[in-house]
Specification:
mainly alpha; two-stranded antiparallel ribbon; about 160 residues; 2 strands
């Protein structure tokens, strides 16, 4: 999906560049015609300038429209990148939880020496006052199972967002 959005951004960028080139060429042709041709005295000269102005205005409108479309595509792409980064963070957390679960399975004691679940009142960067800690192996295993289910659910939601947009 990201690749499709990037292609769309590239296509719109190319269209904007073509419109700018067309506008430049029209401007050059207008200058060449006024310098090479003798000046007619009839009223059609004014219409020629107006038509060139109209054409330039239309091209400018097209450039503005394409620029807005390009900005929208870029915003969509940035949003998808953010969703993808969040998904990656959840996957990394899932991997760490799985490692912890494996380590806890190796241990066969009531309280584990490997991990503690700490509830603390944080006061500043490094100062924290523990309210209580849990080091019971079975409770930690249950906590890991619960968190893995929640993370898997969130990863699924993020993947659906990436697919649907």
């Amino acid at each position: 999906m990201e690749n499709q959005t990037e292609k769309q951004v590239e296509r719109i960028g190319n269209e904007v560049a073509k419109a700018v080139e067309t506008m430049k060429e029209a401007s050059k042709q207008g200058k060449e015609q006024t310098t090479n041709e003798p000046k007619p005295t009839d009223v059609s000269k004014g219409k020629g300038k107006n038509s060139k102005k109209d054409e330039a205005a239309k091209l400018q409108e097209e450039i503005n429209r394409k620029t807005k479309e390009l900005e929208k595509c870029l915003a969509d792409l940035e949003r998808k990148k953010e969703i993808s980064r969040n998904r990656t963070a959840f996957i990394n957390a899932m991997d760490k939880l799985e490692e912890a679960a494996e380590k806890l399975k190796e241990e066969n004691t009531f309280e584990t020496a490997f991990y503690k679940l700490r509830f603390a009142e944080v006061a500043g960067y490094s100062n924290s006052n523990d309210i209580f800690t849990i080091s019971n192996r079975s409770l930690l295993e249950e906590f890991i199972k619960f968190m893995k289910k929640r993370i898997q659910s969130k990863i699924g939601e993020l993947e659906q967002l990436l697919i649907s947009e």
